[in-house]
Amino acid sequence: MITKTFAAIALLAMALFTVSYGVLAEETEELQREKNVTFMFVQTAQSGILIPVEGVDNLYTLTLMGVAPQTIAFSDRPERIVIQAEMQQFLDSLAFSAENPPNAAIEILDADEDEDVAVVELFDPVYDAGSQTLQYNVSILEEPELSYATFNEQADQALPETFGPAALFIDGCNGCCGHWDWR
After folding, report:
1. What global pTM score does this model have?
2. For residues 60 and 151, what is the distance between their CA atoms, to the nearest angstrom?
3. Which of 53, 79, 129, 171 is deepest in the core (most CB within 10 A)?
4. How far apart are CA 183 and CA 172, in angstroms?
5. In this structure, are strands 133-140 and 117-128 parallel, antiparallel, or unpaired?
6. Domain assignments of the chain as residue spans, ordered by start
7. pLDDT 10s digits, 101-147
8. DSSP per-residue string spanning 109-172
């Protein structure tokens, strides 16, 4: 009798372990998939100014005005996630370190063809919700990364100092938005 009871308890324990392990493995797989989702980001502005930083080669202050209060984030297959994040939440989430700054493409809607696109590195973001301005320090990449294939074909070495409507397409980061609720 004790042997049958012990065998039943052992069998039940093994079944619970197997089910629990399967659920845990599923959750771990889902978390891993979420961490591997790579996002790209888009910020839009009604106008902007690009001014060289005095005394520093290839460093500019980019000020975007009339900025939307959110950043659009989207991923490619297989997830195909699209979300909006409040601007400050986005800026706080992405690492803007000097060691590994995000790359971005600035595309100006109404600029001349030879100064409408530049691929840059972004540093030191400052957002002012009240004035709807977003400011970055940027340096123009002479040889942009391959992930910007479309922009690379159009990339210019200079942009106008003042410009109208523009979009900033910011390079992806792997798993940087995992804590955002995008489901």
Report:
1. 0.72
2. 20
3. 171
4. 19
5. antiparallel
6. 1-35, 38-174
7. 888 999 888 877 766 788 899 999 999 999 999 999 999 887 665 45
8. TTS-GGGSEEEEEEEEEEEETTTTEEEEEEEE-SS--GGGHHHHHH--S---SEESSEEEEEEE
